[in-house]
Design goal:
The protein is α/β, with parallel strands linked by helices and 177 residues long. The protein has 7 helices and 7 strands, in the order βαααβαβαββββαα. The protein has helices spanning 30-33, 44-48, 59-62, 83-90, 103-111, 156-164, 167-176; strands spanning 19-23, 68-71, 95-98, 116-118, 130-134, 139-142, 147-150. The protein has a 7-stranded mixed β-sheet. Helix 4 (83-90) links the parallel strand 2 (68-71) and strand 3 (95-98). The radius of gyration is 15 Å and the shape is globular.
Length: 177
């Protein structure tokens, strides 16, 4: 893995910065994201080293901080464990853009501070395209193809959770505030 979520400020990569698209199809379940044999750890870096291991073995060695995961319908179906979005956080993924998400994956990702956007036009993005995401406007820009795609903007409250680094950090800031 060439990068992890360890930006200069220790925070998450900024989805407004361009990164490479790693494209996956429909019905990618949590065992394809993080194979169940590796969920003995909750360490994001350890989990990242096994992200998509059976589906795209090159992912964990080649993903760079700021890259994006792009998928079709029903991304993150399967189990309710947090390991799958946590592996993407550990890998330094900026955001996941998909045509639709399994509800529990969507919630777990937000709770961990990983932006997820529902984008009906995500199927126009190809592997390796350079993209970035405007979370406020709900727009995905494909620099490679000079195209933009409308996504569902996250509600302000969910954006606050993501910006704080997830539910735990958000709650701590509120309690300390």
């Amino acid at each position: 893995m060439t990068g992890a979520a360890d930006g200069a400020d220790g925070g998450r990569p900024d989805p407004a910065e361009p990164g490479r698209a790693w494209v996956f199809g429909d019905n990618i379940d949590t065992d394809q994201i993080t194979p169940s044999r590796f969920i003995v750890s909750s360490d994001p870096d350890e989990l990242a080293s096994h992200a998509f291991e059976d589906l795209r073995p090159e992912f964990s060695e080649s993903v760079e901080t700021g890259d994006f995961v792009v998928a079709g319908e029903n991304f993150g179906s399967g189990s309710s464990r947090e390991h799958s979005p946590l592996s993407l956080v550990g890998a330094g993924v900026s955001a996941v853009v998909a045509q639709s998400f399994a509800r529990i994956f969507f919630r777990n990702a937000i709770n961990l501070g990983l932006p997820v956007l529902i984008c009906p036009g995500a199927d126009a993005i190809e592997d390796g395209d350079e993209i970035h995401v405007d979370l406020d406007a709900g727009v995905v820009t494909n620099h490679t193809r000079d195209e933009t795609y409308e996504a569902e903007a996250l509600p302000e409250f969910l954006q606050s959770l993501v910006e704080q680094g997830g539910l735990k950090a958000y709650t701590k800031a509120k309690l300390d505030g």
